[in-house]
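Lab manual, section 2.4: Encoding a predicted structure.

Procedure: take the sequence of the chain (231 residues), apply the prediction step described in section 2.3, and record the output as structure tokens. A sample record is shown.
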Amino acid sequence: MVNILKKAASGLLEMMLSPAMVLAVRAWDSKTMYEVDLHLPTANMAGWDTIKRLKCKVGALEYRDYTPSLWNSETNVCTMFIETGHDGPGSCWARQLKPGDEISYGAAHAAALPTLLGGVLCLADGSALGHFLALKQLTDHSEHPMDVAVLLPETYQVPDSLKEENPEFDFMTGHGEAGIALMEQWCDQKELNRYNSIYIAGSVPMMRALRKKLKANPAVHAKVQGYGFWS
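Recorded output:
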């Protein structure tokens, strides 16, 4: 019965999917993060006012959500940052992508932008890198200055160009409980009362642990929003 329902739901979703073309694929030196340039011919990128998620078909009855980042609304080209450090359907799909491939995608849950002017504190792991690059593109730095911490496994080697183009992003290495502790230490070094918005995105355990800590901190007056992408 479960398989029948899954097939029925997949069939309905297939009817709402749009095509996109892979233009380029760049793997980081660690081969665990892929940057995929996509042409979305029917997307209205000029009208994007939320952090979008694309529900991509990665296999038979399999779909994964990814965030379009660094888009050009004149050419309808965007980049998806896909973490592939585990052997799931999405990781296997991303590793095999090549220029010229056509993929199918639909709309997934979108995240709202900050509603208050002022500093934005962002905490992420590698799966949420694109999420905060999109947030940066959608906001005015003078109105919403960002401080971003991105936690990556030790094997990841961040391209120098990405660091240079995004000086407000602090990349650090660690995982599990030790990684969460490292993120907590990073937060403790900040003046938390100057942020009017706080976003946490990525691993569910990381998101929950950091959200709990920040909400219990009397210096935090901002709403703490969490987005769990995987567990």
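Check your result against the sample. The CA atoms of residues 25 and 36 lie 5 Å apart.
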